[in-house]
Amino acid sequence: MMKEPGYIYVMINPSMEGLVKIGKTTRDPESRAKELSQATGVATPFCVAFSIFVLDCHSAEEFVHAMLEHEGFRNTANREFFQMPLRQAIKVLMLAEKEFQKATGEDTTRVPEGPEDGTSGADEEEDVE
């Protein structure tokens, strides 16, 4: 499969407590969340909790899924849902981001968003957790 840049995301849904959805998209993760939330079988909307940008989203997603399946977090073999704490899912994505920077030799380090005083500005937004 050809390398394709994109995002690996962690989504949460208030109706699915204890589960996180970890997938990939070549589009904006927020657009993907809206798309998933439109299904009639989904009681409440998905929220993007965290995402990373990688130059090979297919391989990065396979890496993350294999790692989590090996650790016993995968809920169902052919689904992207994992029974695990959000914080731990974020750590795994950060590890994948680091791993795939090494593999490509690219530095895709994110620049912190927020005021120049070093705060994240997160107190202005509603807390997801």
Walk me through this protein's architecture.
With 129 residues, the protein is α+β, with helices and mostly antiparallel strands. Helices cover 33% and strands 19% of the residues. It has a four-stranded antiparallel beta sheet, sandwiched between helices. Strand 1 (6-12) and strand 2 form a beta hairpin. The longest helix is centred in the last third of the chain and has 19 residues, at 86-104. Mean pLDDT is 84; it is low at 108-129.
Indicate the topology.
Elements: E1 6-12, E2 19-25, H1 29-37, E3 47-54, H2 57-70, E4 81-83, H3 86-104
Antiparallel strand pairs: 1-2, 1-3, 2-4
Helix pairs in contact: 2-3
In short:
The protein is α+β, with helices and mostly antiparallel strands. It has helices at 29-37, 57-70, 86-104, and strands at residues 6-12, 19-25, 47-54, 81-83.
Number of strands: 4
Number of helical segments with 4 or more residues: 3
| Secondary structure category | alpha+beta
- The dominant shape is globular
Main beta sheet: strand number and arrangement? 4 strands, antiparallel
Instruction: Give the low-pLDDT segments.
Output: 108-129
- CA gyration radius, whole angstroms: 15 Å
> How far is the N terminus from the C terminus?
36 Å
**Multimeric organization:** single chain
Helical percentage: 25-40%
Mean pLDDT equals 84
**Helix-strand sequence:** EEHEHEH
What topology, given as strand order, has the largest sheet?
3-1-2-4
Strand content: 15-25%
